[in-house]
Specification:
2 copies of one chain form a homodimer. The first copy, chain A, contains 16 helices and 18 strands. With 461 residues, the first copy, chain A, is an alpha+beta fold. Chain A has 4 domains: 89 residues, Uridine Diphospho-n-acetylenolpyruvylglucosamine Reductase, domain 2 (2-Layer Sandwich); 119 residues, Uridine Diphospho-n-acetylenolpyruvylglucosamine Reductase, domain 3; 110 residues, Alpha-Beta Plaits (2-Layer Sandwich); 98 residues, 2-Layer Sandwich (Alpha-Beta Plaits), CATH 3.30.70. In chain A, the strands form 4 sheets. A 7-stranded antiparallel β-sheet of chain A has the order 15-12-14-13-17-18-16, with helices on both faces. A 5-stranded antiparallel β-sheet of chain A has the order 5-6-10-8-9. The first copy, chain A, has a 4-stranded mixed β-sheet with strand order 1-2-4-3. In chain A, helix 13 packs antiparallel against helix 14. The first copy, chain A, is globular, with a radius of gyration of 23 Å. At the A-B interface, strand 9, helix 7, helix 8, helix 10 and helix 16 of A face strand 9, helix 7, helix 8, helix 10 and helix 16 of B. Chains A, B: Its cofactor is FAD. Chains A, B: Keywords: FAD, Flavoprotein, Oxidoreductase. Chains A, B: GO terms for molecular function: FAD binding; oxidoreductase activity.
Amino acid sequence: MLNKNHIVFFRSIVGEEDCKDDAIYLKSYAYDSTRESFEPQCVIFPKNEEQISKILCYCNENFIPVVPRGAGSGMSGGAICANGGVVLAMEKYFNQILEIDEKNLLARVQPAVINKTFQNEVEKVGLFYPPDPASQDFSTLGGNVSENAGGMRAVKYGITKDYVLALRAVLPNGAIIQTGKKTIKDVAGYNLSGLLCGSEGTLAVITEITLKLRVKPKFTQMMLGLFASIDSCMHVVYKILSSGVTPVAMEFLDTLTLKAVQKKMHRVFRDDAKAILIIQVDGEIPEIMDYQIQKIQEIFSQNECLESHIAKNTTEAQEIWAMRRNASQSISIYGKKKLNEDITVPRGNLPSLLKGIEEIGKKYGFKIACFGHAGDGNVHTNVMVENPQDNAELERGYQAVEEIFRLAIKLEGTLSGEHGIGLSKAPFMKLAFSDAEMELFRNLKKAFDPNNILNPKKMGL
Amino acid sequence: MLNKNHIVFFRSIVGEEDCKDDAIYLKSYAYDSTRESFEPQCVIFPKNEEQISKILCYCNENFIPVVPRGAGSGMSGGAICANGGVVLAMEKYFNQILEIDEKNLLARVQPAVINKTFQNEVEKVGLFYPPDPASQDFSTLGGNVSENAGGMRAVKYGITKDYVLALRAVLPNGAIIQTGKKTIKDVAGYNLSGLLCGSEGTLAVITEITLKLRVKPKFTQMMLGLFASIDSCMHVVYKILSSGVTPVAMEFLDTLTLKAVQKKMHRVFRDDAKAILIIQVDGEIPEIMDYQIQKIQEIFSQNECLESHIAKNTTEAQEIWAMRRNASQSISIYGKKKLNEDITVPRGNLPSLLKGIEEIGKKYGFKIACFGHAGDGNVHTNVMVENPQDNAELERGYQAVEEIFRLAIKLEGTLSGEHGIGLSKAPFMKLAFSDAEMELFRNLKKAFDPNNILNPKKMGL
């Protein structure tokens, strides 16, 4: 699709140094965290909005696919070139924090700033950026916006879209637009910032993000509860939230995951513990911390909690977090390949979801390890395939995954809570959306991108 | 545009009783709170989604404008028929609360449920729906979603879009769609719920809304501070928010408004009080209430606060609220007609905004009374026209308004914080948006509504 002349044009815009088509670059930019791999035909490092505008304009006229890319750490194939064309690699020149505005509790950043770098910088001046996807150490804020990333702290503080006040972006026709303002309230024109959040790079190339900040809470505390059943563990989640206590995070590990984590961390809990709930609370004064912890312990004790622990110091708090952070790695003892998804259901349906998943595991003959964000109904399900080289077994694994999607939708849930659709879940869009809804998505994409050059084939469009 | 045959068709769908074209109905449905008036040619009361689907389908084929309408209490002309056609009056059959789900902290409602009715119902079971536009006693939740309504409690709890989890809606082609899920996290497909919020009835007819709820806070407290200058009053706003205390509401009255309110309420404050700040805080335990109040008083005392009061009981709390609620009415002593707008700027720019507005008042020879939501930078500006029958004076008034819009935009603000654009602010869209942005809005509207039948002429489209 791409020929020498195109490369010559790109080099006239960004210079030879920043337009690469040698094999090593094409390979390096072919993958993301899904381990699917499609090579681009050219990797461009744009220096500014004007260059992006010229490149998009040209690609639009020449029907050349363009895929904007941050860290390439996405979990659904959003940043890979399913259809050849050009990668717009933002990490080289769009990695600056432009402004931290303490007066208005907001910041302006370029899209390739790493999430954790940003968190650290705002915390230096006593501020707080809550969205903390598991990939926070390497994923970019632009990627977070494009996938509408969640994280552990979503229970109390919401997800990426709740922090995006304004964006600058370049449209496929080369126009540079601004969406939203530096204000909490803005009802002039359509809510394009809200629409671009989670649009997976299919509508526009984001070049600047204005993010709302909070003041960093003075106190935080970690605790955990061990439960006799996954059911009572899930029951506790909504009991706590209904009590008026809103923890920062409420993370669970199911029986399989709990066992695996204990093994990995050489830590042994009691045998009758079938599920664990990890909770973080925060607040401005010690009394509100005590109040929340007491309330949670009260609810624990009324719901088959076998025992609970409160972190006595930072080290203990880190140990508790480490159990959750090790979950994903530790379950690899159950199989060489894990088919992991991030379905979400209304919290009240978590017990039915987990029961259903257990049955799907039995039906297809797989261990399915589940853990994740109980506080917002977002469960990371992992179908553990012992012999992925066995095609029949792998195929059965994918069937189990499809059945998990069907179950989530039946329980009024969604295909994805935070990873996005990208390529990986594209075939399942038809389970979740009607023909009319899919047609509307396509029309909406056309309104931004009539020639379908931006990140084609993603989201099942 | 509409002829007898069309009416015959509508009656075949909804029955004669629910399709009215007599003068009294056309008059009754011609206005909203802007006092602009355009008569529809027919008022239809649809009973269900299927009827709406059939009507939209027919109107789409016949290029008949359709304006969905709740209470008709909008402040920007969103619910009036600028182009003739049909009003879809939702209040008769779409006024039910369908479900209050205590387990998942959410509710499903039909669009014509009154905001305050809904608040009251959820509070009966200990829950809380924060968005509280000034029109809460009569405006509908569907109208609130369509205009993305704000309110007093936005400082701590956000605005309507922060509570919309899912929608059902009918497209101009008759298709019934669902957007979003009963989950906090959902990143499958484009964020259509976010886009429909604030779309002013131009994209789809909303038929059902799933709203997030919170647990009702146990304690609330009202207080007020009198300030020697509007500047110090505004300064205090961001000082409080930067301290880590987030009040539920922070409302201010400027010197003119404060004087008028005192007169109306027969209450006299000290002469040197030039501005008042009304603050509500809430919390789960008495200690956190004390902490917040102390912190606020500390900041008050460091910033030219002349005196402060804390409500000792419910009556006193209501008296404090009444000062704010009476603001809009009481300023009528300054002129027969008020040209009121609801611009919003980043909080840190409030002092510059109010200084600029004072200068605009002097330049054009008007008193401009300002009050409103200091906590989120949303100011209700009122250009007071003494002799509105004097065309030259009125014209000068509109010039002052336009200059206020220009000032707000210069200060990185927006034309509207909560009222929407509708017809009233349509001429000013070009001040706030580039040609490329306006074209994108139009393309986006076309993606939903290619024949431009839904609420035409609104938003400057």
